[in-house]
Amino acid sequence: MEHMTKPNVDGLLEKIKKYEPEADLDLVRLAFDFANDAHQGQKRKSGEPYIVHPLATAELLAEMNVPISIIIAGLLHDVPEDTPVTIEDIRKNFGDDISSMVAGITKLGKIKYRGIDRYVENLRKMFVAMASDIRVILIKFADRINNLSTLSALPPAKQIRIAQESLEIYAPIANRLGINKMRAKLEDLSFKHSMPKEYEWVTGLVDRAIKVKKGYVEKVKTLLEAELKRNEINFEAIDGRVKHKYSLYRKLLKHERDIIQIHDIIALRIIVPKLSDCYAVLGIIHQTWKPLKGRIKDYISQPKPNGYQSLHTTVFCEGGEIVEFQIRTNVMHEEAERGIAAHWQYDEAGKVASPEVRKQMKWVKDLAKQHLDTKSGPEFLESLETLKIDVFQDRIFVFTPKGDVIDLPEGATPVDFAYAIHSQIGNTCVGARVNDHIVSLETRLFSGDCCEIIVDKDRTSPNPDWLSFIKTSTARSHIRSGAKSRLTRWIKNFGEERESKKERAEQRATHKKNR
Question: Which Gene3D superfamilies match (predicted)?
Fold first, then answer.
């Protein structure tokens, strides 16, 4: 009986073969056997053989179509931490690259959520590991998703702690890296355990929406297919997409929990062969149904900061029902689902060669550097709040008049925008034009806005009152530095004035005495 239930690597190998037919599957099998032997006799809290967990981690990675070196590291990721086998043993058997990834994951293994005082320190470890090799965080995501799916075997307090950690640390990083497939799994599995009542409420809404709208969506899909064929427009697939639960919950909170205001619980997603087809399909949809004003979003010409590309439109459909459509190419769809994992390319030295990966690595390295310099105590707490805004908040993109794109956190103002361009522009800004309209400096910016900063070159320092509304750490740092410099200058000038007055008084006294 035990032999029949023994974990099997064949399912993993089949997944790899689908996207990488030439992969060295013997090496993957060897890694599985190596991990299985190392974990022999170990059990999970659920009573299953321990090897079930690294195997599930590797299968999640294979679903992301990553190179087999990452999958092998996923199979081996718990070996050094939980068994007598060392990193050096892994290096001898599987080489430097795989052992390096496993070493990076092992360092992250001890990260625990222990409240506000330890939170930033945990993030620091995370960013340093990511900056060294961003593949490490992909493996950690897969590891965490599998752990979340088996949380019921743990005590309730530990379930909540792991769910909170995943929701507050891992999911936002997955979002920033554009890995929507993993982000959705991390959020929904965490949501279930960290907010069970809210999860149950949202699940009920989704289930009812599917029950009510399933037939209607199929009808709209059939009508659209007919229209596209009649107009000889190619498409690869038209599918219904159900909004994932945590994302719906956050949107409901923005609309005071009014489900009537949410139009994309179920959306239709159209996948087409090429870019021009996206706009052709958009035209057909708008000829067929009337679009809602202000609900057409072109994320192709203006991608989201994490690289997401798609056309979104919301229309009054059959019978006056409101329906959202998402239109993208297959390449865009792959990038939306897999984010940075869709861009994995390596040169012969094993270094990242893809420009998309290098772009993502820049903000990760900047964060690692910034938080290596963070001291303990009160500065940690301030750093935590900064991170929640700078890194984990949703991002917007704002244009300069020359068309350059500035990536900012949601809720950012023209002052944040000015400092993101250059510190001198921030220090001397006195006003702003947004979409050709003069606005106050505390005006909230939105994605797609074009912002022009008005400066006064005679201005010597920023206004400390800006601290009450700015959002970015860059702006905050420069404003505080400017206020400190102004105070220093004032003290210096005050001292010099006193000395000057003293000298003049002494000169008058001497002159009077000589008389």
Answer: 3.10.20.30, Beta Polymerase, domain 2 (3.30.460.10), Hypothetical protein af1432 (1.10.3210.10)
Q: Please count the structural domains in the chain.
A: 3
The answer to whether 261 touches 255, Cβ cutoff 8 Å, is yes
Closest CA to 142 of 223, 57, 225: 57
* pLDDT (tens digit per residue) in 346-360: 443 444 546 666 666
Dihedral (CA of 82, 88, 28, 65) sign? positive
Which residue shows structure tokens 């195997």? 55
Residue 239 and residue 220 in contact, taking contact as beta carbons nearer than 8 Å: no
pLDDT at 111: 52
Tokens of 31: 């890694």
Q: Which residues of the chain have pLDDT under 50?
A: 1-4, 116-117, 346-351, 353, 377
CATH code of the domain covering residue 75: 1.10.3210.10
In the numeric block, the tokens 């034009």 are attached to 433
Say if residue 187 is in the same domain as residue 212: no
Report pLDDT for 304: 81
What's the pTM value of the predicted model, to 2 decimals?
0.78
What is the C-alpha separation between 65 and 338, in angstroms, rounded?
Answer: 8
Q: How far apart (Å, rounded) are the C-alpha atoms in residues 225 and 231?
A: 10
Residues tagged active-site: 81-82
In this prediction, residue 30 carries a pLDDT of: 96
- Asked if residue 181 and residue 275 are part of one domain, the reply reads no
